[in-house]
Amino acid sequence: MEPDKVKMKLSELRRTFETGKTSDYSWRRTQLLALQRFLIEREGDIADAVRRDFGKSPAETFLTETAFVRGEIRHSLRLLRKWMKPERVPLPLHYQFGTARIESRPFGVALIIGAWNYPLNITLSPMVGALAAGNCIVLKPSEHAPNTSRIVAAGIAAYLDESAVAVFQGGAEETKALLRERFDCIFYTGSRPAGREIMLAASGSLTPLILELGGKSPCIVEKNACLRKAARRIIWAKFLNAGQTCIAPDYLLVEHGAADELLQHMKEAIGKFYGSDPEKSPDYSRIVSERHFDRLEKLMFAGEIVAGGIRNRNGLYIAPTIIRGVTLDDPVMKEEVFGPILPVMTYGTIDDALALVKRNPDPLALYLFTSDNTAPGKVLGAIRSGGFCINDLLFQSAIHALPFGGTGESGFGRYHGKAGFDAFSYRRSILHRTNFPDPDLRYPPYSRVRFGMLRRIVELFDQ
Ligand code: NAD
Question: Is 445 within the bounds of a domain?
Answer without folding.
Answer: no
